[in-house]
Amino acid sequence: MAVGNNTQRSYSIIPCFIFVELVIMAGTVLLAYYFECTDTFQVHIQGFFCQDGDLMKPYPGTEEESFITPLVLYCVLAATPTAIIFIGEISMYFIKSTRESLI
């Protein structure tokens, strides 16, 4: 009992999606323009002095004098995800090969 392939394609949905996306994008641009160029939200003007002792944090020193130097930090941050992915892929390879040998 072979059933024929009576699939019908409707291409009218594509212009509908494009129209909806254009309306959403235009609305976003108009809202951004409205909020940027009008006084919808009033700006609260508050002054402070840059050298105010109450607002300043203690100076921690230069990066080279820190406990972990930037070079070591960057190397660890670059190598850690790579090592985790590598270990995960290797372990999945060995787990997959042991599963296939059991079957």
TrEMBL record:
KW Membrane (keyword) present: yes
Keyword Transmembrane helix: yes
Transmembrane portions of the chain: 12-35, 71-95
Keywords assigned by UniProt, alphabetized: Membrane, Transmembrane, Transmembrane helix
Source organism, top-level taxon: Eukaryota
Protein name: PLPPR1 isoform 4
Species name: Pan troglodytes (Chimpanzee)
